[in-house]
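Summary for the steering committee. The consortium agreed at its last meeting that each partner would contribute one worked example illustrating the joint modelling workflow. Our contribution is presented below. We chose a case with several input lines so that the handling of multiple components could be demonstrated. No manual editing was applied between input and output; the record is shown as generated.
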Amino acid sequence: MTPKQVERAVTVGDDLLTTHKPLLAGGTLRPHCGAGKADEETTEWRRAVNCEACLQLLKEDDHA
Ligand SMILES: [Zn+2]
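What follows is the complete predicted structure of the assembly.
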């Protein structure tokens, strides 16, 4: 079995189901799509990103 690259994602506040692409901003991880409020806590996970807006941003990154 080939080890897959571990995907990392962040959730915001109480919404633990929507996983966002992490973006390091000012020493804290924020959702790439800008979801949630600035004062909401983010949690980092080893999970696949499932936020549609973030997935769209991931696609755009591939073309860069
Ligand atoms: Zn997102």
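The mean pLDDT is 90. The chain is about 20% helix and 35% strand.
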